[in-house]
Amino acid sequence: MLQLPTHKLIHHVTTRWNSTFDMLERYLEQQAAVYSALTDKTLKKNKDIVTLSDDDVKVAEEVLQVLKPLKMVTTLLSTETALSMILPLKTRILQSMVPSEEDSTITRDVKAAIREDLNPRYPPNVQDYLHRSTALDPRLKSLSHLDPALCQRTYSHLTTEIVATEDGQATEPTEADSEASPQNHSAMKELFGETFASKDTGKTFANTIKEEVASSVIPLDGDPLAWWKSNECKYPHIAMMARCYLAVPGTSDPSERVFSTAEDIVTAKRSSLSPDNVDILIFLKNNFKFQLRSALLLSLLFFMM
Question: Which residues, in sequence order, are CB contacts of 34 under 8 Å at separation 6+?
Fold first, then answer.
């Protein structure tokens, strides 16, 4: 009769990020059904049932609107999100928490509490690392959420890090170097030292980074690691650095899912499983979808031949 979707009410759970938002959203959706049930004579008989007032419902609606950006961000972070997304998402949340003239007192207080909690997150050294990670993400490399000075400093730090890495690899003696005689080294240096002197690698890498930044960005739903894989030959040094940064997960969700998988596998009836078999089962569970996708692609290619 009420023409509402058949949904159960949701309870707040401290360990779940979005449970408060989901609880309020579901209550507002089922508000008419809840009111109808609570005012039923058979239920209310000899019971003192307290319902939310109109002011309480209005507060819930306002808080729901404030929490909506957090819901979107936490949902995104619960997926396989790279570290490069952290600071852009934080900036987006802080922007959505700027008070406006239309905000009520409750809305202003909630926004202020969220800003107060988020602003001090991540010390300066961690922020620098996160900025470099974002700069290496082909989806976000424009760093449009940063001011120009900080953007330039981030790319400068990246250049310095790449040069230091390359210099460290270049100074490691190779087997051929150890076998060459000192006379050969001095003769080669005297004959070709000025002609084939090594160029300033710092400027070279800086120009390469500028070229990479100037290239077009990929869609926001694209895969940054896949992009670097296909452009590895064009930007080999930056690609190597990007793999180091973008391989870091943005949250602990992936590792927590592994523990949840292990809990589902190692039950009371399967307590005799060896650790090696548990590792294999967890690996198969977490990689089955990728294996299935590969098998389907191979089957498709086989039938197309």
Answer: 9, 27, 51
| Two tokens, residue 160 | 């310095």
**What are the tokens at 76?**
């995104």
Give me 144's structure tokens.
Answer: 């449009």
Q: Which residue is associated with the tokens 């003696």? A: 173
Nearest to 239 by CA among 226, 251, 248: 226
> What is the model's pLDDT at position 301?
45
Token pair listed for 120: 């001090």
Tell me the per-residue pLDDT of 32-77, one tens digit each, with 9 for 90 and over.
Answer: 888 888 777 776 665 666 778 888 899 999 999 999 999 988 888 8
Q: What 3-state class would DSSP assign to 249?
A: strand
Rounded Cα–Cα distance for residues 194 and 198 (Å) = 9
Name the 3-class secondary structure at 209: helix
Residue with tokens 């507060």, as numbered in its chain: 59
List pLDDT tens digits, range 256-292: 778 888 888 888 888 888 888 888 888 877 777 655 5
CB 52 within 8 A of CB 60: yes
Tokens 């170097």 identify what position? 177
Kindly state the greatest CA–CA separation across the chain: 105
Short-list 154, 130, 136, CA closest to 224: 136
Torsion angle in degrees (nearest 10) through CA of 259, 226, 88, 220: -110
Q: Which amino acid is at 181?
A: S
d(CA 267, CA 291): 25
CA distance 205 to 108: 47
Contacts of 51 (CB under 8 A, 6+ apart): 34, 35, 38, 39
